[in-house]
Write a structure and sequence with these properties.
Pfam families: TAXi_C, TAXi_N. This is Peptidase A1 domain-containing protein. Keywords: Aspartyl protease, Glycoprotein, Hydrolase, Protease. Belongs to the peptidase A1 family. By secondary structure, the protein is mainly beta. The chain has 7 helices and 33 strands. The strands form 6 sheets. Strands 3-4-10-5-9-8 form a 6-stranded mixed β-barrel. Strands 12-11-28-29-14 form a 5-stranded antiparallel β-sheet, with no helix packed on it. It has a 5-stranded mixed β-sheet with strand order 15-18-27-19-26. It is globular and about 70 Å long.
Length: 487
Amino acid sequence: MDLRRLALVVVTVTAMVVGEFGSGCLGNVLTLNVKRKFAGRGKNLSAMRAHDMRRHGRLLSSINVDLPLGGSGHPSEAGLYFAQIGLGNPSEDFYVQVDTGSDILWVNCAGCDKCPTKSDLGLGLTLYDPKRSSTSRLIYCDQDFCTSTYDGPLPGCKPSLQCQYNVVYGDGSSTAGYFVKDDIQLEQVIGNLQSKSTNGTVVFGCGARQSGELGSSTEALDGILGFGQANSSVISQLAASGKVKRMFAHCLDNDVGGGIFAIGEVVSPKVKTTPMVPNQAHYNVVMKEIEVGDTLLRLPSDVFDSGDQKGTIVDSGTTLAYLPSAIYEPLIAEILSSQPDVKLHSLEDQFTCFQHMENVDNGFPTVKFHFEGSLTLTIYPHEYLFQIREDIWCFGWQNSGMQSKDGKDMILLGDLVLSNKLVVYDVENQTIGWTEYNCSSSIKVRDESSGAVYSVGAHDIVSGSSLIGGSLTLFSMIIALLHSCIA
């Protein structure tokens, strides 16, 4: 996403979505096929960063679920992730971006104006058609779903008028359409590493018109699967049905690829947490200090406040890490103080790079971000630097002060610093935590109804498809619906 689209300018409808998974217990685990969007060291770095920039514009204002995930967030290896889900009856497959920074599930629909029909990612795109599904139902403006979304009856509403949505981003790109309710098909895990197909029912956006970058075929997907905090997100839908808690976790492996994405209560490993900033649209936390090696950076006292966007945004859907000039410049200077002979050069007018033949972990300092609650995020040189050639390294830190006015003071931490760590989002209790972890191993999650604890492992399934000069990686994303069933 573009930093120019960091702030959502217009949300005509943000749905109060009700998710349905039947009256009985759904089961424990669901699986999604997840693929990475970029692959191969030969990929275009500008495309990867441009994707981040556009993604930032989509960042918005209980049973337990576990999502083992595959892939790598390393800038020179892979970028963001997208999942394959089934919608409708009979079910059709759709590729949707898995996005913790947005709040609805929407897909492009039949009859759409300027929706992409092909993707340069090598994917076959599908237009959802409610008429092809025997279980689809339109949502109308006089229904509770729509009136609660608008906080009351809509002026001029008639029973035959559909409940519509319209999202306009800061760069003018937009998505508009109407809401439908239909089956979603996922893979339910019925035991350790065992699963079967299962259906649920969710309300989602049916995209009728796209504009700007959303209509481009360069990085086109069928839609977006939002994991944000709003009632319209997938996790909130499941929570509203009483089947899940609003908790999820991810562990992205940048060493060997693959990883885990989990929704639900993680019981092992244990993580230390920090409070989320209240009343924020994003997953925001409060950073207090930055340490480079043994040196604590001397920074302005208000540098960690970002205007209306209070605190530091934690977003697994972004590849890099973005810091305002007041942090970026002293951070880079202190990192380089141990290497005075390093000569910097700009790559593609966007990345600060240098030549280095030795092990970067031996030549550059570790960076530590200290957060409220004594939680520390440690980033090693091989994590904040990425290698594009045998002897060329680039900084993954980006200067958000060089971006648009809206994003210039933003602190945003993406996969660059979140990888190789288990990150746990507890929306129920408004905390986020993390711990360094082997993301190619497994985590343990608890089923509240039975008390059973399940081990969920990482996945990294490679397909033979081609994608931007590299091989497309297919991931298995497992959603463990470890739920409390209400009699």
